[in-house]
Amino acid sequence: MVQNSPPRRSRGRPRKFDPADALKAASERFRTHGYAATSLDDLVEATGLARPSLYAAFGDKRALYLAALDRTIDRVGKSFDTLIASGLPLAESLAAMFRFVIDGYLTGEAGPSGCIMISTSAASAVDDPAVRERLAAFLAIEDQRIEELLAARGDAQAHAHARLVTAVIHSLSVRARAGASRDELDAIAAACITLIV
Known about the structure:
Distance between the termini: 91 Å
Shape: elongated
Order of helices and strands: HHHHHHHHH
Mean pLDDT: 92
Low-confidence stretches: none
Helix content: over 70%
Largest sheet: none
């Protein structure tokens, strides 16, 4: 007599792995805690991936951090594409840019986390050439695209003003992490716009 084996129960469909979602989650964890203070266990928790899957998808922790920085550089470039294409007048362009920046800086996993590039990569760039290269690329893109935006809006001092705006953006990142309020950050941005327009 042949025994019938019980029917196999379906384990359900495994959640589909989305590299973009995992990279976003890892970027947020790095942005909040920095490179050195973010452990592999933190990244496993943030992404929902097991260590072998994390390694298979991105490589080691450093490779994942570099991918997070590359993601940031790409996102900043696309944001400026959108802003430049909007055709807003100079003051409105700057106001929209600062609003976008401050909105982002005031988010984070555990409170305002600022910018991953300014707040975390600056520390790691001292002894890691690959991080330093990405930080330099990020700064160059900011300078270039802000200058491009200002020049397109008729600013005769676009080069000098772009460096001023970039410096203010970096200050806003640090101040957001230090607990500055939205009103304080908005006031700094408004003062910068007044100096330019």
